[in-house]
Amino acid sequence: VFPCSLTFCTSRGLHAPFTPLLSTCVACIVNMINFFLVMNRQGKIRLAKWIQAYSIKERKRVIKDLELNLLPRSSNAANFFPWKDQTIVYRRYAAVYFIACVEKGDNLLLTLETIHRFCVLLDMYFGRVSELDLIFNFDRSYLLMDSFLLDGKVQESSTLKTVKQAQEGDILQNAEVLELALSEALG
Asked: What is the structure's pLDDT at 15?
């Protein structure tokens, strides 16, 4: 199933740690996400992370294609479908679609789990996250996305650690704002 040897991964062309239990290198287990989008039911993009290079025209075309292919799907349809030479994996939470694009051979269930973990991360940070949280706190949402996904792969699997780091950043930012306000008031 996996195109790996003991010390050299032929599919990735690199030396990687070998896991004998899975008969593969660690690099082949991790999915590579090409882009990650959060879209509402009207087709408006709320968050977007483009890992592969797409021009603005191509991005608009991708969003339009996804809007036409994803939004009319019934709720009991599968959470993935082929799209061009890739696979779209999505999950709908309330009125928002979380969409990831992966290569055809990647593990779709692992991608669904990645989407779910990101939703849990947002939920832990905002407390019952809604579309309005994504709109009005887009900077925090992008910060969480960037700390969760790096180069199309999950950077930190611990949601508690990621939320704690984001909250510590909030505390530092609030302290800097307060210090600046006090120095302007006194000076």
From this structure: 45
Question: Is residue 88 classed exposed, middle or buried when 0-12, 13-18 and 19+ CB atoms within 10 A define those classes?
Answer: buried
Using CA atoms, how far apart are residues 171 and 176, in angstroms rounded to an integer? 9
Q: What are the structure tokens assigned to 62, written together? A: 């991708």
Looking at the chain, list the stretches that DSSP marks H as alpha helix, in order from N- to C-terminal side.
Answer: 26-29, 56-70, 108-126, 131-136, 138-148, 159-186
Q: pLDDT for 51-78, tens place per residue?
A: 999 999 999 999 999 999 999 999 899 9
User: For residues 70 and 81, what is the distance between their CA atoms, to the nearest angstrom?
Assistant: 9
H or E segment to which residue 84 belongs: none
pTM over 0.70: yes
20: pLDDT strictly greater than 90 = no
